[in-house]
## 1
Amino acid sequence: MSIIREDDVIASVADALQYISYYHTPDFIQAMGRAYAVERSPAARDAIAQILTNSRMCAEGHRPICQDTGIVVVFVKVGMAVRWDAKRDLEAMINEGVRRAYLNPENKLRPSIVADPAFSRLNTRDNTPAVIHVELVAGESVEITVAAKGGGSENKSVFAMLNPADSVADWVLDQVPKMGSGWCPPGMLGIGIGGSAEKALLLAKKSLMQPIDMQELLARGPQSKLEELRLTIYARVNALGIGAQGLGGLTTVLDVKVLDYPTHAVSLPVAVIPNCAATRHIDFTLDGRGPARLEPPNLDLWPKVQWAPDASARRVSLDGLTKAEIATWKAGERILLSGKLLTGRDAAHKRICALLDAGKPLPDGLDFHGRMIYYVGPVDPVGSEVVGPAGPTTANRMDRFTETMLGKAGLIAMVGKAERGPEAVKIIHKHGAAYLIAVGGAAYLVSRAIRTSRVVAFAEMGMEAVYEFEVRDMPVTVAVSAAGESVHDTGPIAWRGKFAGIPIAVE
């Protein structure tokens, strides 16, 4: 009979969260390497190169793959024959492990969890509590899967109660374009079918914990109806041409996972949850012999991809930037930014716009006239870092503030990730402004372009404060030009249908 000690659970959970913050799983790296090898869209290929380069940098430097270090989701299978040497209950043990992981001074992880979600939304400061699912199973061990799920991909989850005669594949194909690119493709789609409403969503999330094996499935062929469904959705989604970061390209999904469960005769519950380019999860087993031992992956598994700025990229100085210069930028054009860049996300925008709409002045020293803003909530720095990993956040959350920021604040350009809504595109065009994207999933790489950082306003808001970064050659792509052209519209159209016929395997 195994005796599971409290300290072993806590240490294992903490170690696992640190581990997955900087190590991609080898199956993901190999799948991304293949996507890079077959990609023909220059913009998508550049984005994938940034993701792969960032991944290796994080594996070597032990720093987070993405600034959004996720909401912790834990699946636990408790063997019914185990005994416990613990004063805390299982939930408290897991949350203590989360707390220690996210407060680790050697690799700070961004706390993103807020309590009282419908009202005050106060940050818990240590990323607790985790979302925990427990099963009692036969056996003398405890099997634990730890995942850290980014908000950008989690926010794109969808669920529906279909009619039994409806096509699951058709419904999924209808939903994926509506997700946009805020989930940072290429990634995975997890699909849950059957059970009840909550069971379908749980199946979808659990499916994302499975290894990527699409190329093996393609090579051997399907052996069940569910595998046929996986292949159908995989091919049809990639044929949409959405591509990396929504820029248009051959690979939108690396794999499609499907789990099902018996359901009511009149029901067909279906859930889809995407996993982003910061896929983070790991399994371990506790059997009473101490904490889990997590071996580092072999860095030789990483493809020999080293991102470098495109020689044709335009270098732009942010100091003295004018609308006349912005008007010359073309949608899809790659740009390297240098100079002083303000930051701000949802909470800062809300406070800024409330002041401006009320005719009140902004805090001393905060002036957006002729400036560009970066939608980012960075990880705290460690050691000699100016700032921790600082990738972009999903931009359309700021759409509601765009008219005020461009019309009253004097902002002339923005940087984020994913597409803007139709109304925001119209407002950007109206004001002769521009919207650019940085690559989601390349946060550590992007942070290397940041040379100085200082708080300008709202210091009490932590990661939501307004900072001023001084950047040098920060890589971005023009997503919405001053002429109102959106690459998130034109890119997928240009690549739609071109996925068919790409090789199954790449040497």
Note: The mean pLDDT is 96.
## 2
Amino acid sequence: MTEKIDIKSLNEAELCEIIVELGIPKFRAKQIWLQLFQKLKTDFAEMSDIPKSLLPTLNEHFEIRTPQVLEKLVSRLDGTEKYLFRLYDGSIIESVLMRYEHGNSVCVSTQVGCRQGCAFCASTKNGFVRSLSAGEILGQIESITREHMGEEGFRVDNIVLMGIGEPLDNYDNVLKFLHLVNDKNGLNIGYRHISLSTCGLVPEIKRLARENLPITLSISLHAPNDEIRSATMPINRRYNIDELIEACREYQAVTGRRISFEYALIDGVNDSVEHARELAKRLKGLLCHVNLIPVNPIKEKNFKKTTKNNLILFTNSLNNSKINATVRRRLGADIDAACGQLRNKRMQEASQNN
């Protein structure tokens, strides 16, 4: 039996082509597209303008893969919502809804697990399973939107590709997702409201630059030199900091966009004033912003977050060197909102029960 088509990963032109091949009138493709991507329907039978006579054909050839909400946690501190989703094959991923004065942001996963092995990241602890399709990435935003159907004026305004997985390790599906979520007949979220975070896959950063999409590129840097970065981020052994920064300069030259650098401050590892000065020299001349993050404690690695005093000194040192730096506001601290934490907890519980 032929595997059904993941319809949410098709753009309108692709859907139209397949619909015509199935002998269905071409105009039905537009109707189905709007029902799926604008009205967020999860079943062909729910589509009021699609005749029932077409349902057997549609159900035979297509599958509407909708992430199932396994668990939803809501922070009592700031209203942040953490979602644990089960996908069609039983895989588990996470997404987070963050509420800001400027709008609602959703952090999405792009893979089930991660193969990059960053020492301070919970997402990589259980290894890599598979990459998500474009429709599965989009489905996280749509599922969260459906959860708030009764909330007047609710809309997802911003997207952060910073959940489980390395987005540029799933390049083609992520690129297709970006086009789908930006489509004016769908969620219509502007590229300038989308941030993509990468640990530093240099060839893919250069490839992304050639797409010339006005999204924000966010680099998980976390170290001022190769010695520290290679010890905590295996990707640095393939592409060192000089290569990474050069790729960032190329990206900026093409897109004209400011680049964001994520820097998790680990007590006694990368949080001294000397480290801040070294980092400032690396970034000199780049239009950039440094997002400082006191690291979430990780027992297995004996990592502790930096002290408040070191955080202040580090921030001031960067700003005094004309490198714009701010401390990230931590959201959802009471619900394991950092990516990978809730999934790991669920997997550990499942392992203990087996």
Note: The first strand starts at residue 5 and ends at 6.
## 3
Amino acid sequence: MLMKWFEEWFDSEYYHLLYKNRDHQEAEEFINNLLEEIDLDSGAYILDLACGKGRHSRYLASLGYKVLGVDLSENSIKEAKQFESENLKFEVRDMRAPFTEDAFDLVLNLFTSFGYFDDKKDNYKVLNAIETMMNEDGYFVIDFMNVEKVIRTLVEKEQKEIDGVLFDITREVKDGFIVKNIKVIDGEKVYNFQEKVQALTIDNFKEMIAKTDLVVDNFYGNYNLDIFDADTSDRLIIVGTKW
């Protein structure tokens, strides 16, 4: 069976190399800002959905919360598992499929981990999974890119060299997706990968969420949780509850 782009790319060593300098301090400040907005008990149970290597999960666990991080990438979860503790666990799971009911006080989907799928029905599977796995008085957070600004400022061609590996990157907007083609040149080895994310606007999210039992409390535009502005915001961060 042909692998989906996210199954191949997110499980690749080159994915982790390209993004190895992600800002952990920024991630921690974002979590701190969220926790000021969300009323969580000290013993809250948090799900980090599409957690990658678990940088957000690890920080939340360090604050004393019980945390489960899940991701489809076996390599990411394998690396994350070295940080497991009594209140921090990691599992390989598909975010489209709920695996428990009424369990989590907060469900997080961070760093543009939504809209990967060719079939837009899968967006609803993710939203319904989030809803199913939330406690009745729980919260959800979806952290997506601000598509309108991304498209307006799109860098069509870029090269990066990291640890002797060359990344030749092109970007385009095609068929409702923002597509990043990544050619990796590692010595004599050459690989081609792709990132492909649906170009979902705030109106798209409003429309989708309106068809679920989720309720939006606020739309924020950055990790400081300033109010979203389509022209200037870097992120589209959705915080809400359910009926």
Note: The helical segments are 5-9, 13-18, 24-37, 55-62, 74-80, 121-133, 147-152, 202-210.
## 4
Amino acid sequence: MPKHKPKRGNPTIDMTAMCDVSFLLLTFFMLTAKMKPAETVVIDTPSSISETKLPDVGTFTIMIAPDGRTFVDMAGQHTRKLLIDNLNDRHRMGLTEEEKFKFSISGSFGVPFNRLKQWINLDNASRDKISTGIPIDTLDVNKSELAEWIHNARLAQFQMKQEGKVKDEYVMVLKADKETPYPAVQKVINTLVDINVNKFNLITNMEADPNKVEAKK
């Protein structure tokens, strides 16, 4: 008696559910994503042959414009919130919780303490008009607002690290325009040295190493 072979068909997979999930995830990320705030000052950095790469997170950046104005930007919303809480109490800036939150999600800034509240409540175009730079006192580091920002930001980041909210302390970064006068850069470097920050990185545009190019020939 011949054996009966069952009829075999091609299996089918319904992809409808997977497509629905994919579009839901895409929609979620599009609606919740936040644009990076535009930098207050545009800086054209000089070029070098250095191939060292900076980390994507955990940086404290000091920017020096071509006219010598100094700006600051720092990573970490929670660190920025803790920092502004401390400085608000110390300088009695009278910031509300909403204004502190706005600062925590903002980008770079360059105003004295007494104008920070006004800066927070302006739009980007108006902020540029009052951004006179963070004051630097090279004679008395205790009166230098830049030194105070750096010192307290590092303390806030260290506290976040102790609480397990961040992995590392701040990587200090100096970003100056190629047209910035050297004395303006030197003032920032002197400020860092005065508060015992002896390790920092200089941001440059990468150019071809002439020694490597010559070797290939």
Note: The chain has a mean pLDDT of 83.
